[in-house]
Amino acid sequence: MNNIDSILTEWGKWSRGGFGGSAARSSVWVTDDRRGSAPNISDDLALRVDGSVVALGQLDKNLRYVIELSYVRRLGVIEIGLKLGCGRRKVDSMLAEACGFISGRLSLLLDAA
Description:
By secondary structure, this protein is mostly helical.
């Protein structure tokens, strides 16, 4: 698991808790079913990730959708491919592109802070 993957995983937990623009439809705190843990991410960083995901959606809605399916809804590559009507390689490519965009934007935002 690389750094952006870890950050997005924690952001996904945070989002499932009902926070942010990609929030799961829940007004109550939700813990991660698999680990029983609250997100290990500051609200500040989570909001920056959330803003980056929104910016990604303005660039390409499908890339934002892939990030949300993967990290918020916790779907696997095959399940995402079935939803989008594409193969595993295409989903992997989209995830890599989306993660690269978010990672780059976070770097710029954090350097400016």
